[in-house]
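Progress note, sequence design subtask.
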C-alpha cells in the first residue's frame, strides 16, 4: 500500500449496524450527521473488501492494535494481501469479526469523523448513498462503492454539500426520529455529499419540488455550479412564494434567501429579495 509499514494507518471504525448503529453519537444538539458511501470512497486512497484474521501488539505509539485482514477484493488503491493496519474497536468486535468471518468494507484516507469500516455482515445493515437512498445488503453496497469510485476516477479530494434526508429516509435510518424538514429546528439527519454532476442534476430537478425545504436546498446546491442556465434558474427563484413557517423570528421566504445567497456566491449581483411577507 502507499504507506510506510512501520507507521501503519490508524482506522477509526464506526459500525453502523453496518454503518449506522454508532452514528447516534453525532446527534448532540442538532441533526445527526450521517456519512454516506459515495463521499467515503471518493475521498479515500484505498478501498477494499476483506476479513479480519488476527491481532498483534502495537508497533507504534497509537491507540488501537495492529489488525491484519485478508483482501477479498480491491476497489481502489494497491493494498497488499494480507494488509496490516491499526484499528480502534472493542476486542469483542474483533473476536466476532474473526470467529464469524464477517466481510468488511475497509476505507483508508477518508475525512475526519467518517467511518472507515463497514461491517457487511451486520444483521441490520443500513448504508446511506449520496442520492439519499439506503442500501441494505452487501452486494449492493460493494457495487455502489465500485460505481462511485469508477465515476470519480483519479479523485481523492472533493468538495461536499450538506443535504437533508427526507422523512421516509430518516425513518429508515433511525426509526422514530422526529424529522420535519419544514421546521427550522428539524432533527432530520444530514449528510455531506460530493459536489459533482449527480448533485447538479438533482438540484435542477429539486428546485421544482413541491416542498419548500427541498427547493431551498436545491437552490443552495446550484450555487456550486456556475452557468448561464443555473443563473437564470436561480433568478427565477427570487420570487418563490415558499415560506419556512417555523423560523426563529417568524415565517421567512426560505427559497428566495437561498437563491440570493447562491447567486452571491457566484458573483452575480441582484437586489436582495424581501425576507418576510
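Output:
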Amino acid at each position: 500500500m502507499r504507506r510506510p509499514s512501520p507507521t501503519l494507518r490508524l482506522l477509526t471504525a464506526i459500525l453502523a449496524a453496518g454503518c449506522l448503529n454508532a452514528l447516534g453519537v453525532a446527534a448532540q444538539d442538532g441533526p445527526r450527521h450521517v456519512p454516506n458511501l459515495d463521499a467515503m470512497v471518493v475521498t479515500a486512497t484505498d478501498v477494499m473488501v476483506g476479513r479480519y484474521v488476527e491481532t498483534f501488539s502495537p508497533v507504534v505509539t497509537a491507540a488501537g492494535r495492529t489488525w491484519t485482514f485478508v483482501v477479498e477484493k480491491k476497489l481502489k488503491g494497491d493494498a497488499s494481501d494480507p494488509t496490516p493496519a491499526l484499528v480502534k474497536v472493542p476486542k469483542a468486535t474483533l473476536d466476532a469479526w474473526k470467529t464469524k468471518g464477517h466481510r468488511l468494507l475497509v476505507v483508508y484516507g477518508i475525512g475526519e469523523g467518517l467511518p472507515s469500516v463497514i461491517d457487511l455482515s451486520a444483521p441490520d445493515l443500513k448504508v446511506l448513498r449520496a442520492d439519499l437512498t439506503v442500501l441494505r445488503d452487501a452486494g449492493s453496497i460493494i457495487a455502489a462503492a465500485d460505481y462511485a469510485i469508477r465515476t470519480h476516477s483519479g479523485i481523492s479530494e472533493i468538495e461536499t454539500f450538506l443535504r437533508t434526508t427526507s422523512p421516509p429516509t430518516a425513518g429508515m435510518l433511525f426509526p422514530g426520529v422526529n424529522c420535519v424538514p419544514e421546521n427550522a429546528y428539524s432533527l432530520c439527519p444530514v449528510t455531506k455529499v460530493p459536489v459533482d454532476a449527480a448533485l447538479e442534476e438533482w438540484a435542477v430537478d429539486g428546485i421544482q419540488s413541491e416542498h419548500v425545504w427541498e427547493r431551498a436546498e436545491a437552490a443552495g446546491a446550484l450555487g456550486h455550479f456556475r452557468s448561464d442556465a443555473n443563473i437564470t434558474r436561480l433568478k427565477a427563484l427570487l420570487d418563490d412564494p415558499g415560506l419556512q413557517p417555523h423560523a426563529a423570528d417568524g415565517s421567512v421566504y426560505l427559497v428566495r434567501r437561498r437563491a440570493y445567497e447562491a447567486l452571491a456566491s457566484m458573483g452575480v449581483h441582484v437586489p436582495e429579495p424581501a425576507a418576510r411577507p
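The first strand starts at residue 10 and ends at 12. Work on this subtask will continue into the next period as scheduled.
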